[in-house]
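Troubleshooting log. The previous structure file for this entry was overwritten by mistake, so regenerating from the original sequence record. Sequence copied from the archived sheet and checked twice against the printout by T.R.
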Amino acid sequence: MTAKHLTDTTTLNNGVKMPWFGLGVWQTKAGDEVENAVTYALNAGYRHIDTAAAYQNEEGVGNAVRKSGIPRNELFITTKLWNADQGYDTALRAFEESNKRLGLEYVDLYLIHWPVKGKYKDSWKALEKLYKDGVVRAIGVSNFHVHHLEDLLADAEIVPAVNQVECHPLLTQTELRTFCADHKIQFEAWSPLMQGHLDNDVLVNIAKKYNKTPAQVVLRWDLQHGIVTIPKSIRESRIIENAQVFDFELSTDDMNAIDALNENRRFGADPDNFNF
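Regenerated output below.
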């Protein structure tokens, strides 16, 4: 089912409901900038906020959430375990620190941020403990290729609920999306707007046809593919505009035309070759 409203949810493999659409806060400065961005999003009807320890803005996210007055159970908050903190004991400690910075009763989704070789399996055991202890509602991974997932699943007690990766029309991740669907792992896109590289003739022409922006077309493409998407912005007008994607539907031909743009092109690091 394609989402029809901003608050529509997908049901994860453990029964937890996760909004299809959210606000990402990567590269959003701590303090007023992130607090304002989250406040704009919540005021616009967003109920899903995605942060990470590495973004160094968890505290601001938590402040904005608390000040909003929105009941905690109506919100979905994601944060992530940073690479330097991977390992069993260090992951448990890192979660405690993230939880303190957020200052919320619990975290909805906790992800391993990158597949650090030789460490992500121990980190996953720590996440399984956090899940069993009830301090996180769901656990998952980020930036895992198929072979990372296969390796993890060989020993995991719990199947990841989510895999959040770079995905957009120039990097459609078809094989990975299929693998995740087959294993009931919800696929989620970061950098869905290609870090602003939207001046593509196909996207521009499709946008004109629907009286939408290229960004809105890409976000709609995500939703129609069953991809959870978390576009980042700090501007209130853009945060509102990004969410105006529930009043139109791309035709099959237009979906296929966007699919055909794939170049396996990354704007972020390759999970098989990163040094941070």
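Residues 88-102 form the longest helix (15 residues). Archived copy saved in two places this time.
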